[in-house]
Amino acid sequence: PAWRAAVAEHENRLAPIESQIAANFRRQTAGLHESPLVLLREFGRFRHLLGRPKIRQALAHEREALVSQLVEHVDGLEQSFDASVRDGAQLELTCNLSPHVNRIVCCRQITVRAHELLNNCRALFADLKNFADLEQAASGLLSRGRREEKELLQQWSDEVEAALDDRPESLRMRGQLMHINKEGLLTVNYSERLVRLLREVRQLSELGLHLKPEITAVAAEGEKFYRYGVMLKKVANFFNKIEKQIIPQQRPMLLDALVEFEKIVTKPTNGGSGELTWSTPTECEGRLAPQLAPRP
Q: How far, in whole angstroms, is CA 220 from its chain's centroid?
């Protein structure tokens, strides 16, 4: 009894101070009611004060009003989800990523925001009646996001697997490294779609998504030759562009240089197969590295 009486007396002494704290907080945040996320951060800064029952009770009206605004904010996130992820009408495409991966990234961004919002609000407003509305709205958006992300990942995987067949434009690293086409242009057989696949695999892996082994194997194979593919494309771009900048009489000299470069790449070596292909990583490393290394 003596302990309880002492605690009660202590609480009574704190009551005026806590009332003043609540009033000060109300006054300092009076201009933030049109910015619910900013106001939420202010509540989060003083979450230890909201642990006091009397302060929490004194700010009940402000807290309930903020929860109602946050419910509207979650509704806005859901509308953004529908427009950007489900329908794709307002999707902001990221450079060099397929629409499916762009939608997956956008889906994850929205669901992460909803998840963080719900976690922050649970510690601050769980005692309020209208918190159930916020929890229901945010949880529903999270469930939709997980389902949509799973479906989009499956669609992307199906699209990539369809590109791994035996067609000439397959994503697999195979065939001759480079050749001179009928127009006399130097062509490097390193698919731009494969370059995009490497970016997409990196992006999806960073999101923690599980990718099919066949897709990751193709990406790993493409990564081995990526730096050589990029350097060879720069060389090919140089030869193909300079051809338009010289007089006709010099073109045979350029063709000779092209053929000579191709001979360097395809020249047989001791124990080598002769034609250098993407399926011979050891030969590719041994022959391309010296030729493409920076000159002193």
A: 19
Gap between the Cα atoms of 110 and 112, Å rounded: 5
Which residues are CB-neighbours of 22 under 8 A, at least 6 positions away? 54, 55, 58, 59
DSSP sequence for 110-140: HHHHHHHHHHHHHHHHTTSTTHHHHHHHHHH
Measured at the alpha carbon of residue 238, what is the angle toward residues 237 and 240, in degrees to the nearest 5? Answer: 65
Torsion of CA 239, 244, 248, 249, to 10 degrees: -40
- The packing angle between helices 99-125 and 36-45, to 10°, is 50
Taking a C-beta distance cutoff of 8 angstroms, is the pair 111, 141 a contact? yes
What pLDDT score does 129 carry?
92
CA dist., res. 294 & res. 296, Å (int):
7
pTM over 0.85: no
